[in-house]
């Protein structure tokens, strides 16, 4: 039986991660493990007090999950930087899935880059689920956003196993560019001709996507493509609304050179702005538990 790891800062936001992980565990037969990291950059007496308080809270929560919800649950307390502590627990435990609560959003300035969530997702070798929405039921529909990169195609291996374990229907969505339309508009080309060109690009992209998916072990509920007019992330969000997805699946960038320091602009934008849950899959991720 696999175990889903849930990172919690003991805030109400983290409760969403715990409840979503519980729903996933029930659907897949997995167990849970809760982890909390206590900041070690403070006086020893404060560290010890916070560790003791966290131990009481997590022990009670784990006991409730086992006795009331019927899901086996362990818990861990560690010290250090939250980012490094979470990654260390993931590495040592070999967990197939990490669940986080939503990042803290500010009224006037919504910052995601540099947060603990962004740093963990950027560096984690396992898929990371950000539980943005209040969990009320198992997922109804998922949108897997793909491009034609090797990492995106690899992510479909994970997507196929998600579908098999959780029984959630998955739509494959691709946002394409038609850069020639800008030149055509500046050249005063008729709108009907521009639409015709976009239609031709869409047909070519859709045909290539179907051809690639035919070689992959995934059977999507449907395949859709959309022109990325404002941005790729905006197109992904629009496709998610179109199909009524309550989970969006995105791949993160490769981990060599400069890419190792970047999450990827599309994945970062989706994670920053999405109202629904987002599952971020690294290039060489293993399977997940539901």
TrEMBL record:
Signal peptide residues on this chain, from the entry's feature table: none
Q: Which UniProt keywords apply?
A: ATP-binding, Nucleotide-binding
In what residue span(s) does the UspA domain sit? 1-130, 139-282
Q: Name one GO molecular function term.
A: ATP binding
One Pfam family this sequence matches: Usp
Family to which this protein belongs: Belongs to the universal stress protein A family.
**What name is this protein filed under?**
UspA domain-containing protein
């Amino acid at each position: 039986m696999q175990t889903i790891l849930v990172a919690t800062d003991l805030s109400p936001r983290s409760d969403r991660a715990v409840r979503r992980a519980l729903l996933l565990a029930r659907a897949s037969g997995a167990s849970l493990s809760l982890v909390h990291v206590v900041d070690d950059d403070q006086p020893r007496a404060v560290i010890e007090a916070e560790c003791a308080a966290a131990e009481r809270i997590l022990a009670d929560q784990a006991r409730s999950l086992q006795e009331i919800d019927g899901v086996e649950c362990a818990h861990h307390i560690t010290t250090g930087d939250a980012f490094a502590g979470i990654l260390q627990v993931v590495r040592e435990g070999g967990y197939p899935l990490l669940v986080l609560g939503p990042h803290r959003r500010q009224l006037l300035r919504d910052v995601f880059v540099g947060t603990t969530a962004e740093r963990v997702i950027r560096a984690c070798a396992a898929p990371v689920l950000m539980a943005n929405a209040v969990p009320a039921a198992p997922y109804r529909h998922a949108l897997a956003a793909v491009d034609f990169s090797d990492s995106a195609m690899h992510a479909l291996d994970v997507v196929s196993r998600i579908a098999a374990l959780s029984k959630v229907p998955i739509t494959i969505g691709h946002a394409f560019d038609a850069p020639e339309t800008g030149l055509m508009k500046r050249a005063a080309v008729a709108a009907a001709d521009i639409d015709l060109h976009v239609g031709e690009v869409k047909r070519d992209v859709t045909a290539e996507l179907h051809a690639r998916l035919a070689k992959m072990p995934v059977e999507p509920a449907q395949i859709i493509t959309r022109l990325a007019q404002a941005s790729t992330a905006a197109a992904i969000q629009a496709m998610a609304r179109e199909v009524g997805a309550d989970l969006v699946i995105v791949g993160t960038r490769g981990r060599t050179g400069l890419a190792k320091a970047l999450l990827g602009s599309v994945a970062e934008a989706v994670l920053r702005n999405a109202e629904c849950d987002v599952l971020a899959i690294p290039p060489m991720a293993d399977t997940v538990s539901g």
